[in-house]
Amino acid sequence: MYLILRFFTNNGPFFTWLVLAIFSIVLLGQSDPYHRSIWFGGANVVSGEVSEVADDVFGYFGLRTANVELMRRLALAEEENQQLRQELQERADVDLVLRNPRAYTYLAAHVVDNSITRSENYLVINKGERDSIRVGMAVANQNGVVGLVSQVSSRYAQVISVLNPKLQLSVCLKESQSAGSLVWTGGSPNFARLEDLPRNLSYEVGDTVVTSGFGGAFPRGVPVGRITRLATSRDNNFLAFDVELFTHFDRLSEVYVIQNHEPCPF
Predict the structure, then answer these.
(1) Distance CA 222, CA 88 (A)
(2) Predicted pLDDT of residue 215
(3) Is the pLDDT at 47 greater than 80, yes or no?
(4) pLDDT at 112
(5) Is the confidence at residue 259, as pLDDT, over 50?
(6) pLDDT band, very low/low/confident/very high, at 266 (cuts 50, 70, 90)
(7) Which residues of 79-89 are buried (b: 16+ CB within 10 A; e: fewer)?
(8) CATH class of domain segment(s) 60-162+251-260
(9) Domain ranges of the chain
(10) 169-246 sits in which CATH class?
(11) pTM for the predicted model, two decimal places
(12) Domains 60-162+251-260 and 169-246 share a fold
């Protein structure tokens, strides 16, 4: 014990410098978007690997529950698949439909880091440039939308979360097709704000909100949430509603990246 104390005493200036240097780098990365971008590009491989190891350890304890949920969803997916095939058989040549190239493909990824309590939230997934991930690609999970890829390295990608006011998604109501914008205004990670809905149309609590397909990142119809109540609008010509999100960001683990293969029409 004496030797350990003596070691720290003799090297006190070095450890003081090291702590202050780390603290300064963290502050610089948090305060300025440019330096935050540089920090992500240079350090996300190391931080991603560390987060991935920690996530593997803690994720083991929830493995049984996850497997049960996975099997339940696979059964539902198979049921829906069979129903869709039957409808295609009745309406058209199913073989011709299935031979057509897909506009969107889905790549599974694992969340290795995630934040939900900051004013601007991001997450990191274990897929990157070597997996053909590009900036602007959509990210979702089995429940609904998650966000958009904002930065990419070789093995990891940073995703700007729906829980980030910088991200505004084009959405619409599933039944009426009325389009608006979804934005997170802070507070609870379970709710966001649906804005810019025309006043001349009728809306009801419980209406389902889905992606509109505008912009091309998300296909049309990806679940977002449901209307819970009327909110204060920033424009008297439009309505705004609070939306309960389908995605549970506090339990986010497995996601998929949506790759759009359709050429831009413009």
Answers:
(1) 21
(2) 85
(3) no
(4) 94
(5) yes
(6) very low
(7) eeeeeeeeeee
(8) mainly beta
(9) 60-162+251-260, 169-246
(10) mainly beta
(11) 0.68
(12) yes
First and final C-alpha spacing in the chain = 71
As beta bridge partners, residue 227 has: 243
Tell me how far apart the alpha carbons of residues 151 and 154 are, in angstroms, rounded to a whole number: 11
User: Do 214 and 177 form a contact (C-beta atoms < 8 A)?
Assistant: no
Q: Are the C-beta atoms of 131 and 149 separated by less than 8 Å? A: no
Average pLDDT, the chain: 78
The pair of structure tokens assigned to 210 is 């889905």
Token duo for residue 67? 């497997």
Mean pLDDT computed over 162-173: 96
Please indicate whether residue 178 or residue 93 has the higher confidence score (pLDDT): 178
Structure tokens at 186: 């802070």
The rounded distance, in Å, linking the Cα atoms of 146 and 227 is 18
Complete DSSP assignment for the chain: -HHHHHHHHHTHHHHHHHHHHHHHHHHHHHH-HHHHHHHHHHHHHHHHHHHHHHHHHHHGGGHHHHHHHHHHHHHHHHHHHHHHHHHHHHHS-HHHHHHSPPSEEEEEEEEEEE-SSSSS-EEEES--GGGT--TT-EEE-SSSEEEEEEEE-SS-EEEEESSSTT--EEEEETTT--EEEEE--SS-TTEEEEEEEETTS---TT-EEEE--TTSSSPTT-EEEEEEEEE--SSTTEEEEEEEESS-GGG--EEEEEEE-SPP--
Residue 147 in tokens: 């966000």
**What pLDDT sits at residue 41?**
55
